[in-house]
């Protein structure tokens, strides 16, 4: 078994030069423990490279230290300010030194402005976790990384842990610099081989955890609910069975004996074929609470996914609505989950489509700790072949006010305490396949600290770090190409929130009817007269009723439903006039021509900066943009042709439809 | 590497009891050589079982002998008659003894009727070959047998030749009893591993050939056109390159040195990604003639497949027509192929759909030796989950008169000299997955001998052999369930000859638009007003012009085009009235309700004979009929719903459409 050699790995948002401002100064790091040690080593490296002085005997230009009046031991918060001619990071505790350090790095010279006013930094979400869908063994259908578009796993290769974990360390450093503090190392669809990570292959998890530990990142494990049967030779995995509970308790104790700072479990149960408590006539609360009991002595959580629905639906049955499923399953269980259970809810009610309403579950369970789950890997958003900068979408989710009032207090927003995201990195030399998809990965941690932050500002920050010496023209071009790319992607794919219309299985490229007659519960109901899913209380599936007012009423009424979600909530004629003043059919034509045209422009814009970018980066992006352009035109033509054939209504502008 | 144990193998159409009439008599076999030896051994077995006398000293009841005035040495012909109180088989040569023997077996007691009039038997097609699409190695997408629905390969297991070739011998015996005289052992898509069968793994082919030899069956090999590059380390596979020609000549000499009665090559070139002469700017005649030259000294043929088309077509381009491709490619080459080239033509212009017109190539190349290729494996006809007795379709192909006149001489039919068929057998205990699919396999050889034979008579013959002691009710039920099953399958799948509408990739189950926007050239062009492909000369792709008159005119005109091919040749409104008097849309509804209903009846009929059939056979067929019923209802509902949504025209009978 030889590991394939990798070409030079891209530095992503930590090229050496971003350490110049800090590395050319005198920097002192106070504090004990491994995290302080990591910061000291980083400072030493930077100073060695740029002529600064680490741990100077004279007064420093930058002091990183743990504040005497620190907060909780595990707190990552810190104060950034200026004291006695020096920039200071006053961390609440040892865990705040590293975030403070990277805050200074990100700022560059600006961090040393004597006019720097005090700023208090504290993460909004205490847990900011990337869930890797990595398999140990290459899955015959899903490959090594499920929905992975960036090569193989960073952790495993040919069925075994990589001998060389250097890239894992580099990855940990990148994540720390972005604000992430946890990683789940394996796929939520836990196949038999991966089930063993919990017990006889736990050593591999421990090795990975050691590599992440220096950067303040804890390792979580996705577990198989049937593990007591598969691994423990028990006849059942019934969560109320004492032997099963003991098995989980003993097994979990062994995990913590091996990995004292182990992060917790992640579970996909009773979903898409995975085992779960339903097998034993138990509730999801029973299942989650059993694992919570095993984890409680170690003060660690179990994240239990709310992605539960009937994936064997009869397409003929218009009363069943997959969008309702999570709320139907979980809202009645509010208050019945243990305190260390975190219910992990996909941000939309379906499955990571480019446009969905926010999941009503996020506002329906005040007595349950929630995680909101984003998908960084671009399963439905171009699979890292298309530029699709996702933070504007995520911002909409994280900033959604269930009260409907933009001026309401923040407390009105989702009460989720955890931000989780399905990872998009692999052993690709650019980490994410598409170099520009690094920005999505970068943004997770940044939004995890400050969900209200402007996505465009995060983008510019990422550009400044990743292309540190870029002239303004390149920065502007990158911003232009990326900032609106999610809306562009939406324009040329499924219209007005109706979703899916992708090729079944791999989910890339258009197939309008691909899921229309399948058991997956993802339909558009287009006929010769109209399209859309009636999810109203009045005449449809009643899904709108899962929202608090005023959203239930806004979505319920054709006259107030936002255009971009119209077909998610309503079935309308093609001639229905949108709030925008155009008809549904003309909107379809217009957006699809515009979207494909915009990709052509993006290509031209990228071409124009050829001389300003690392040739390897430019070549990779160029190649991906060519495919995006081809794909966008394919989407445009299939969607337009499909609806023209069905509606018979010509494009008002007479453009070519096949 | 252990081979998986197989349960008791089904006897198919050679259960011991069918040898009773012969085995209870005195039987003499004259003649020399291995084939006479095979017949003698068969006779000895039968007589030992049923009390007859093999090679009696007294005058026999049955004499099998080579006629003094025999025909060509390799002739398989024979005369069956009655002489001096005995039934006699007078074979033209040693190769006719075995077919004569099985003719007697098939007749049972009737063969010993003293009133038996002389009958001359001679195969219509000199070569009757089953092409196995077996891979040596399991292909990651296609599995071990491409489009195989009956388990693994009879020849290879886990990448190596099976140690035990007993089943291959049994298979050879079954084929001989049905009239087949050749087998291609490997897939026409020759992957790298299988390419080696030609050289360093030739010993495996020789072992298979030895096993088939005793039953008069020769072995052919599908070869990779790029073999000189892959195996020979040559820089090119250019068919006009002297080194390449020498390589093929030397390699072929070695094949015949190892297997003196080797049958010949089969080639899929420049098709669906396979290499071919186009790579080198050469014609298919150049490619085929090179291989023919290598084979000529050994008096063996190369079969060159005419299945060449653009599989990267732009669906937006309505001028390209895949149906035209074989004729466009090959008709201009008529007369340019060497005498031992056989151009192998799929029976229809597309790809083994349940209903296609006969390929015009079969009548366009009077100066070329042709093979007509059937597909016994049910790729598009229910994948051996559905009962679909195919000989009525094949009969239509083999009996098609290009002159259009049913009373014209037989010479007017296809001049093909070879009948080839893609095999449907595997290591399944019933050989073909669905026990009733054995009848399709059986019929290949029978039609190869006598293409004009009534498919219903072949069916009854197969029933009599396979269920030898069946009471009349069971025979009637089998006949009823099977005889019209192809038309039933057609009823509930794609309507009126339009084809495809299957799930891309695996080709099972409905997906009306599955191929509509793909590069495969298989479209229906359904819109809200109508459906079908305009292939007329007047307004369409001109495909009808590839037929001789009167067919070109019959197909060209809406008023004379047969209903069952209407949408293959014409794009018509849903309200178009068929020759049958009903509209296209109502025909779609009616046939789909009727087809699914008929499957329900077939299930009931099969249930009613539960006590009359071997329980294992009954159980397997029952299980498959349940799936066929589910699938037929799925087809019915998807097709009806699709066209109802598109046309807006209700079912005149008000039946449920979703």
Summarize the structure.
Chain A contains 19 helices and 20 strands.
- What class would the helix/strand composition of chain A place it in? alpha/beta
- Give the largest interface: A-B, 24 and 24 residues
Profile the largest sheet of chain A: 8 strands, parallel, barrel
Regions with little confidence, pLDDT below 50 for 5+ residues of chain A: 408-412
> Assembly type of the shown chains?
homodimer
- Biggest sheet of chain A: strands side by side, in what order? 7-12-13-14-15-16-17-18
Q: Roughly what is the average pLDDT of chain A, rounded to an integer?
A: 95
What characteristics describe this protein?
globular, homodimer, six-stranded mixed beta sheet, alpha/beta, 658 residues, 19 helices, eight-stranded parallel barrel
3D architecture notes:
Two copies of one chain form a homodimer. With 658 residues, the first copy, chain A, is an alpha/beta fold. Chain A is 33% helix and 13% strand. Chain A is built from 19 helices and 20 strands. Chain A has helices at residues 20-23, 33-50, 97-107, 166-178, 192-195, 202-213, 227-230, 242-258, 284-295, 325-330, 391-398, 438-449, 455-466, 472-483, 485-492, 551-556, 566-569, 584-607, 615-647; strands at residues 26-29, 53-54, 62-66, 78-83, 86-91, 119-121, 127-131, 134-139, 143-145, 156-157, 160-161, 182-184, 218-223, 264-267, 302-305, 341-346, 369-375, 418-422, 530-531, 572-573. Chain A has an eight-stranded parallel β-barrel. In chain A, strands 2-1-3-5-4-6 form a six-stranded mixed beta sheet. In chain A, α9 (284-295) links the parallel β14 and β15 (302-305). In chain A, α8 (242-258) crosses α9 and α18 (584-607) packs antiparallel against α19 (615-647). The longest helix of chain A has 33 residues, at 615-647. Chain A starts with 19 loop residues before the first helix and ends in an 11-residue tail after the last helix. Residues 408-412 of chain A have low confidence and may be disordered.
């Amino acid at each position: 078994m030889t590991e394939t050699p990798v070409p030079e790995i891209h530095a992503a948002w930590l090229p050496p030069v971003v350490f110049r401002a800090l590395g050319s100064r005198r920097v002192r790091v106070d504090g004990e423990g491994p995290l302080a040690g990591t910061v000291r080593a980083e400072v030493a490296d930077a100073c060695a490279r740029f002529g600064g002085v680490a741990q100077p005997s004279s007064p420093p230009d930058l002091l990183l230290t743990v504040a005497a009046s620190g907060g909780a031991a595990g707190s990552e918060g810190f104060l950034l300010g200026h004291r006695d001619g020096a920039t200071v990071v006053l961390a609440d505790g040892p865990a705040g030194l590293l975030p403070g350090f990277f805050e200074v790095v990100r700022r560059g010279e600006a961090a040393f402005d004597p006019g720097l006013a005090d700023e208090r930094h504290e993460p909004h979400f205490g847990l900011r976790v990337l869930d890797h869908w990595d398999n140990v063994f290459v899955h015959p259908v899903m490959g090594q990384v499920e929905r992975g578009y960036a090569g193989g796993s960073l952790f495993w290769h040919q069925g075994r842990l990589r001998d060389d974990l250097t890239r894992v360390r580099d990855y940990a450093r990148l994540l720390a610099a972005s604000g992430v503090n946890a990683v789940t190392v394996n796929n939520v669809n836990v196949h038999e081989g991966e089930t063993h990570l919990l017990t006889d292959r736990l050593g591999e998890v421990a090795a990975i955890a050691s590599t992440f530990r220096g950067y303040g990142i804890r390792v979580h494990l996705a577990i198989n609910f049937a593990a007591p049967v598969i691994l423990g030779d028990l006849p059942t995995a019934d969560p109320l069975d004492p032997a099963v509970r003991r098995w989980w308790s003993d097994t979990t104790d062994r995990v913590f004996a091996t990995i004292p700072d182990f992060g917790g479990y992640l579970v996909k149960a009773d979903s898409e074929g995975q085992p779960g408590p339903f097998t034993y006539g138990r509730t999801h609360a029973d299942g989650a609470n059993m694992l919570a009991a095993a984890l409680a002595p170690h003060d660690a959580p179990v994240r239990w996914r709310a992605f539960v629905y009937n994936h064997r639906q009869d397409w003929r049955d218009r009363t069943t609505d997959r969008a309702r499923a999570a709320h139907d399953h979980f809202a009645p269980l509010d208050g019945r989950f243990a305190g260390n259970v975190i219910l992990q809810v996909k941000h939309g009610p379906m499955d990571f489509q480019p446009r969905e309403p926010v999941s009503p579950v996020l506002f329906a369970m005040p007595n349950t700790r929630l995680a909101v789950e984003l998908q960084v890997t671009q399963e439905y958003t171009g699979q890292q072949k298309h530029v699709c900068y996702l933070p504007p979408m995520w911002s909409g989710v994280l900033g959604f006010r269930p009260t409907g009032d933009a001026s309401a207090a923040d407390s009105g927003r989702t009460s989720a305490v955890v931000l989780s995201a399905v990872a998009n990195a692999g052993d690709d030399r650019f980490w994410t396949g598409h170099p520009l998809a690094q920005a999505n990965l970068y943004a997770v941690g940044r939004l995890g600290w400050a969900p209200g932050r402007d996505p465009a500002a995060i983008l510019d920050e990422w550009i400044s770090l990743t292309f540190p010496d870029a002239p303004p023209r390149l920065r502007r071009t990158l911003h232009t190409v990326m900032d609106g790319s999610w809306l562009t992607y939406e324009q040329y794919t499924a219209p007005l929130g109706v979703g899916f219309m992708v090729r079944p299985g791999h989910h890339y490229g258009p197939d309008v009817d691909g899921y229309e007659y399948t058991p997956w519960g993802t339909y558009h109901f287009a006929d010769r007269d109209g399209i859309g899913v009636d999810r109203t209380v009045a005449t449809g599936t009643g899904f709108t009723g899962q929202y608090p007012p005023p959203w239930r009423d806004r979505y319920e009424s054709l006259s107030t439903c936002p255009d971009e979600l119209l077909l998610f909530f309503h079935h309308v004629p093609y001639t229905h006039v949108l709030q925008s003043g155009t008809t549904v059919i003309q909107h379809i034509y217009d957006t699809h021509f515009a979207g494909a045209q915009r990709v052509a422009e993006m290509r031209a814009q990228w071409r124009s900066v050829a001389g300003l970018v690392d040739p390897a980066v430019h070549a990779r992006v160029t190649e991906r943009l060519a495919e995006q352009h081809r794909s966008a035109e394919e989407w445009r033509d299939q969607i337009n042709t499909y609806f023209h054939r069905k509606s018979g209504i010509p494009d008002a502008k007479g453009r070519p439809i096949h």
